[in-house]
Amino acid sequence: MNVEDLGEPLIICEMCESAEIRYVHYMENARYHGILACGAICAGHMESDLVRAETRDKKMRSDASRRKRFPSRAGWKINEKGNHILKANGYRITVFRKGILWGAVVSRPPADKGFFTREKFSTIETAKMAAFDTMRFVEDNVPKPTPFRPF
Fold it and tell me: What are the domain boundaries of the chain?
């Protein structure tokens, strides 16, 4: 469903309940209730495609330095609602305040569907890094919309 770089190993894989993970694959499977936060190997077993899960994991590792710089990259603007907006790589990223926490949504205009970060975050920087993860996930897993061409 999504992937996320926590910056360091912070949680235990919810499938095997033993591996400490930094790169989290959020998985949904009919055999398990709800969404599980898994490491690459367990994610590969859940989707019966270890190579695909390892490829996602490897991509997250290579994106780690870009992700770290993402919150301070040029182009962030604040709109009239106080949300932080960035247009990058064909995406519109919106980081917004939800009470005392921060969340983000990534969309690819002209499509209306937005992809929200799974969690809410205590700082705007961590919300922006999660938005980067979501943008990379959409790039790799969601087909680009077909442009409308009139007859």
Answer: 2-62, 67-141
